[in-house]
Predict the 3D structure of the following.
Amino acid sequence: SYDFNHEKRGCCVIINNDKFTDMYDRPGSSCDVKNMETEFRNLGFDVKIYNNLTASYIDKKLRKVSMKYDHEKADCFVCIILSHGEEHFDLKRERNDVIFGSDGHHISIAEIMERFSDPYCHGLLGKPRLFFIQACRGVKTEQGVDITIKSIKKVEVPVHPQKPIDRKKLIYSFSCILGYYAFRRESGTWFIKSLTYVLQNSLRSKTFQQMLTHVSYEMAMNYKSKNKKNLNIDGCVTIPCIMSMLTKDIYF
């Protein structure tokens, strides 16, 4: 397991964009902020919250945290981003996940993660970096299907190709799978509500990776959209996408 016996647990950055100049607002996001602040403070993190940042200021704030925070004395780093997002294709038709600033301009997730990679943030060498992205990754939706579970079998899940991120000791979790819509309620998003529930109720003997699997279960089994005015998004379900380059277990 990773060494979690440093002087500090680490920094947890929460970027919350719920007001936009030319996009619809995201009511309920403040509930997500409160839940994440509470849970990560309980885990011992120094929590920094930034609200309604433009795309350029998102980059500026993260650069500052990367360079100014004393990561040498920390166990790990956490970044939580709550905003609008989409899949973006550049001129070479290469695909990137992007999130939007309050000004409607976007910044790529890969660019954000780059700020905390080994070459740019030496204090995190050998330490895990955890990213949680609550944002849409497209406009597709998936209708839920009621099932009866009789047995559990190992299933090979196809991996959607995307531009590779050359990182080590990194885990990031999107609120939905590639190309799909991320759902929320006035009381918060499905993903963050599920993550909050798991952090509150999981035994500390579990690895963090096991907790994230439980988050997927919570979302899949306990959430379904209700919108009789728009049947295209009524009765839909979603599940987070967890990608890990960790080489050891994480215990909080």
